[in-house]
Amino acid sequence: MSEVPRFWRESRHRYRLVGTRCTNCDTLYFPPRVICPTCRRESVGKMKEEEMSGAGEIYSFTVVHDGLEQFKMQIPYVMALVKMKEGPFLTAQIVDCSPEEVKIGTKVTATLRKVRSEGKAGIIQYGYKFTICP
Amino acid sequence: MSSIVSYGSYIPRFRIRTEEIAKEWGENPENIKSGLFIHSKSVPGPDEDVLTISAEAAKNALRRTDLDKSKIGAIYVGSESHPYAVKPTSSILVEALGLTYDIHSADYEFACKAGTAAMQNVMAMVDSGQIENGMAIGADTSQGAPGDALEYSASAGGTAILIGKNGFADFNATLSFTTDTPDFWRREGEKYPSHGGRFTGEPAYFKHVLTGAKKMMDKMGTKPEDYDYAIFHQPNGKFPTRAAKMLGFNDEQVKDGLLTPYIGNTYSSSMIIGLSAVLDKAESGDRILGVAFGSGAGSDVFDMTVNDRVKSLKRERAKGVMEQVNNPIWIDYATYVKYRGKIIMRGA
Fold first, then answer.
1. Any CB–CB contact under 8 A between B345 and chain A?
2. Would you say residue A134 has pLDDT above 90?
3. Is B294 part of any domain?
4. Is residue B195 part of a domain?
5. Could you point out which of A12, B134, B296, B338 has its C-alpha 20 to 30 Å from the C-alpha of B146?
6. Residue B176 is inside which H or E element, if any?
7. Do both B17 and B161 map to the same domain?
């Protein structure tokens, strides 16, 4: 089944790291949430979209040697938990580097890349990945 | 009068040396290096394409200005390697850059001068008052057939030029020169382009570049020595160097905008990535001549002067061209053909 509608609904979040901030408790969530899990009904109508800066650091990571078919060309590649400057954690691929260059605490910055495509004729899904800051 | 408000470029980090390609095809790399004047070229990563390259170039341009993004009324992307045959790169960029939805957008094609054709359209819209600011992008991930001479030069990169009023570099004039010349083409559905070999030189590149530059200098009453910098379309290192000499420009005027020897021919970004490198260092009062060429064939020529507002330009907020040129990840030929989709994978 095509993922076009889901991809389209999430595109701005994936392209620009747009999350939602609960203006009741001032917590930023990514992926975006409709209500704050802490403030619950108090947050209704108080969740505001907010774009993150793209700056973060590696909290933890793993090196993938046996990847998904679509990532076969990129193995070995690094998947990391990135702690964003604004607070949220997210899982993402670290690109344009060898696994030896990646360390816990390494500063990274978001970059827009192709994530996957639905075959040669299908839609191309773009989203965030990260590169190491010089 | 329209002017450059900001600019930014992006060059993929992966690079391959001329020696790596030459050894696979039994060529003498020294002949290639001295003949084409190309030492290495950029290669897009397996997850990079014209959209991602355009986005990074545009983000670099936006970082250098405090302009409110809602004031950008047009975005045009010139390329001959758009990711989709039908589905604009420019509309994806509107979302990826967080621009207003009340925006003119379109994709342009004219071989290597699609990006400068986009610049001319944005200039006209700014000059006519239809928009306050607009962004023109030239980007490509061009392919050369394995073993073809183009394989040494066809590279990847992109440049975004933000045009509006009260920018730091004024457009004094622009003009174009166009003829029906079949020097280089790619039929719909074909993976690799074809070219007319030596025919790409005199009747195509040199005729259009030299004529365009001469017409501009006639129009403006200028001579080569009136310009501090001259940038020419650079399909290789040899053509622009020879064109500059034939017109009467010296090496000092040309060297800062000549990047093909190190990153190859970035096609729709070719001249404007040279312009971007020049803008990285240009000072108030500097006069710049830029001549783009597109096969098929035509030239777009720009006469520009940097003004005092360059002193408040925030160049340091984004990586300059040479900073990116000097940050390579070297790859071998096997990795190159894998990344460029030149080997048949299961399910492909």
1. yes
2. no
3. yes
4. yes
5. B296
6. strand B169-181
7. yes
Q: Which residues of B are catalytic?
A: 80, 112, 233
* Element spanning B92, H or E: helix B89-97
Question: Across the interface, do B13 and A96 touch by the CB < 8 Å criterion?
Answer: yes
CATH number at residue B9: 3.40.47.10
Cβ–Cβ of B46/A73 closer than 8 Å?
A: yes
What is the span of the domain harbouring residue B244?
169-309
Q: Tell me which residues of chain A have a C-beta less than 8 Å from any C-beta of chain B.
A: 11-12, 15-16, 51, 69, 72-74, 95-97, 111-115, 120, 124, 126, 129, 134
Q: What tokens appear for B222 in the block?
A: 């200028």
Cβ separation of A112 and B339 shorter than 8 Å?
Answer: no
Longest dimension (CA), chain A: 47
pLDDT band at B347 (very low <50, low <70, confident <90, very high): low
pTM attached to this predicted model: 0.97
- Does residue A70 have a pLDDT over 90? no
Q: How much is the CA Rg of chain B, to the nearest whole Å? A: 19
Name the one residue in this structure whose structure tokens are 């392919």.
B143
pLDDT of residue A3: 83
Cis peptide leading into residue B261 (ω within 30°): no
Q: pLDDT per residue over B56-92, tens digit each?
A: 999 999 999 999 999 999 999 999 999 999 999 999 9
**Cβ-based contacts of A14 with chain B (< 8 Å):** none
Residue A72 pLDDT: 85
Domains in chain A, ordered, with CATH? 53-132 (2.40.50)
Which B positions 288-327 lie with beta carbon below 8 A of chain A? 327
Q: What is the mean pLDDT of chain B?
A: 96
- Distance separating alpha carbons of residues B326 and B42, to the nearest angstrom: 11
Residue A65 reports pLDDT greater than 90: yes
Is the Cβ–Cβ distance between B303 and B171 less than 8 Å? yes
Same domain, residue pair B125 and B243: no
pLDDT at A1 over 60: no
Q: What is the mean pLDDT of residues A15-35?
A: 97
- Asked whether residue B9 falls in the same domain as residue B157, the answer is yes
Peptide bond into B136 cis (omega under 30): no
Pick from B51, B97, B329: which is nearest to A96 by CB? B329
Q: Is B156 helix (H, G, I), strand (E, B) or coil?
A: strand
